[in-house]
Amino acid sequence: MTSSAARAAAMDAPDGSTGPVALADLLTGGAIRRITRWGEEIMHRPTTPVTVFDAELHDFLRDMFATMDVADGVGLAATQVDDGRSCFVFRCPDIDGEIVTGVVCNPVVVVPQGDRRALVSEEEGCLSLPGAYESLARPDHAICRGFDHNGDPIEIVGTGMLARCLQHETDHLNGIVFGDRLSTRRRKHLYAAHDAIAYRYPDDWPVSPRGPLDPVKAAEAKRSSARAR
Q1: What is the CATH number of the domain that holds 100?
Q2: SS3 sequence of the chain
Q3: How far, rounded to the nearest angstrom, does the alpha carbon of residue 77 sit from its chain's CA centroid?
Q4: For the chain, how many structural domains are there in total?
């Protein structure tokens, strides 16, 4: 969707729509929502573009920020709160440690190709498979283009963890979870790690908080992880 079309969509929004809203206004006041899990249908199908940038979208984005923050995440896609729109929120450090916060609707990610492409293998996790991490190689630089919460064009240049975050969240909106990018062996280890810690995460987490660590179960989790490798 072009920038002019995005703004037209915002202007044509139904009653209750708003004018431009500052990003800071979206960072507080939201409600915590349940985070969907891998295996639920919405996590594995492509999303639909955002075409209306109105008060309802802004309220939804507030909920996304509130949910991401209470779950200690650095990014959250709409599908992770059971919504099929193509948007994500993030608050994530770049390679220099600077925290970058924002919203991207209808994102497209571009990564370097050829000789300019440098892969970095680091542990990656997902709020929709909580408690489990596995190494995944991704490009160390990414450019994400789309629209902000007001329907204005936006471009974010990501380095370090931010580059990984932009790729991870855009994958979600294309129906891809990072486990899809792992080898069979690494995916098996990832699921074993999650299964061993899943008792701490209620079905409606983070609406209900994470449970306490059980030393006995933690020891078993360590043994299970070792067997899965």
Answers
A1: 3.90.45.10
A2: CCHHHHHHHHHCCCCCCCCCCCHHHHCCCCCCCCCCCCCCHHHHCCCECCCCCCHHHHHHHHHHHHHHHHCCCCEEEHHHHCCCECEEEEEEECCCCCEEEEEEEEEEEECCCHHHCCEEEEEEECCCCCCCEEEEEEECEEEEEEECCCCCEEEEEEEHHHHHHHHHHHHHHCCCCHHHHCCHHHHHHHHHHHHHHHHHCCCCCCCCCCCCCCHHHHHHHHHHHHHHC
A3: 4
A4: 1
Per-chain mean pLDDT for the chain: 91
Residue 53 lies in a domain: yes
Lowest mean pLDDT: which of 65-74, 182-191, 218-227?
218-227
Which of 56, 124, 134, 169 is the catalytic position?
Answer: 169
Q: Is the pTM of this model over 0.85?
A: yes
Q: In this structure, are residues 197 and 132 in contact, taking their beta carbons and an 8 Å threshold?
A: yes
Beta bridge partners of 134: 124
Give domain status of residue 206, yes or no: no
> 134-171: per-residue pLDDT in tens?
999 999 999 999 999 999 999 999 999 999 999 999 99
Q: Which residue range is the domain that position 83 belongs to? A: 3-182
In a domain, 217, yes or no: no
* Angle subtended by helix axes 215-228 and 184-197, to nearest 10: 170
Give bridge partners of residue 105 from the DSSP assignment: 87, 147
Closest CA to 45 of 15, 79, 92, 1: 79
Does 229 reside within a domain? Answer: no
98 is catalytic: no
